[in-house]
Amino acid sequence: MAQYVIDLLASLTSSCFPAAEIRINSRRVKELRLLGEGGFAFVYLVEEVGGSGAQYALKKIRCPFGTEDALRERDAYKMFDHPNIMKCVDSATVQERDGGKTVLILLPYYRRGNLQDVINSNVVNRTTSSERDVLKLFRGVCKALQVVHGGRQTPTVVRPRMDDDEDDDAQESTAMMRGSNNAGSGRGAVAYAHRDIKPGNIMIGDDGVTPILMDFGSMRRARREVRSRAEAIEVQDDAEVHCSMHFRAPEIFDVPTGTTLTEAVDIWSLGCTLYATLYGRSPFDTGEGSPALAVLNGQYKIPEDGNYSDGTNDIIRKCLQVEPNDRPNATQVLEMVDKALAQC
């Protein structure tokens, strides 16, 4: 905890003092500025020292209560090799002086920010994104989810232990990846759910058109049977911590005993994300009433004065079905996007 306070103070005074160097295995980087923070995590813009001077985003996750969640996120970044999924450049686990640990995850730095930045700019400037541009970007997110959900474009590495006890050695994950089998074959693919799809977790590539799905700290095995009330509460508690309220699927707001959760939770969030990109906010972020009740009852409105086609709005409607089995899968959403694009 002491180290968390130190890092917080450092972030507040970074403009007053020269940045210290940080070693990540054989790399040396120096902090330039704070990009963002949340919980026990800080993300810094860093620059490589003594090399190319390349810039990266360094995520520092303080772990006062154990490293399991942070290492799960680290391993998730290493699971996939796809242009629409964030890659881990390097990682390390550091022992702090106070006895705690910090997991360092070095990621690519994208200068254009994320999709939420685009939405915020539209709201401030009272502008909108073109339907075609939104659908092309949304198409890339669907392709990323095809991979995460274990579709025909499959993970290129053997699955890491998403629920094991903490592992202090960052090299063990690399060793597991070297043992990969069935890479790209479509055999043995495991379905995972991201569980926190939202505009803030979709970076915009430096080309301005490529979406990159990020922040896999929420990712879990997609298929989970909920056998007891205790398990249901456990899932709900986990969702409250890791899944943003206005993009959270109804089945993880109120988890019924005897149900099986699936990757359909991401399809709901995908619909909310498309809505937010078009209309400036989540369909359940109205500022009126309870968002949870609105989600559970599927109560939302598509603006009548919007400038978007019925085909695009229909994608939202099909994703936002309260019953998970009524939602399309990622491949079917992609097909609807292609159809809507053809009509733009």
TrEMBL record:
Protein's UniProt keywords contain rRNA-binding: no
Lineage: superkingdom? Eukaryota
Q: Please tell me whether the keyword Transferase is annotated for this protein.
A: yes
Q: What class of enzyme is it?
A: transferase
**Any one annotated GO CC term:** vacuole
**Per UniProt, where does ATP bind?**
K59
GO MF, one annotated term: ATP binding
Region Disordered: list its residue ranges: 155-185
Matching InterPro entries: Kinase-like_dom_sf, Prot_kinase_dom, Protein_kinase_ATP_BS, Ser/Thr-specific_kinases, Ser/Thr_kinase_AS
Q: Boundaries of each Protein kinase domain copy?
A: 29-341
Please give the catalytic activity noted in the UniProt record: L-seryl-[protein] + ATP = O-phospho-L-seryl-[protein] + ADP + H(+); L-threonyl-[protein] + ATP = O-phospho-L-threonyl-[protein] + ADP + H(+)
What the entry lists under SUPFAM superfamilies is as follows:
Protein kinase-like (PK-like)
Assigned EC number: 2.7.11.1
Q: Which GO terms describe its biological process?
A: regulation of vacuole fusion, non-autophagic; vacuolar protein processing
SMART domains from the entry? S_TKc (SM00220)
Keyword terms: ATP-binding, Kinase, Nucleotide-binding, Serine/threonine-protein kinase, Transferase
What Gene3D superfamilies does the database record attribute to this sequence?
Transferase(Phosphotransferase) domain 1 (1.10.510.10)
> According to its UniProt record, which protein family does this protein belong to?
Belongs to the protein kinase superfamily.
Q: What's the name of the protein?
A: non-specific serine/threonine protein kinase
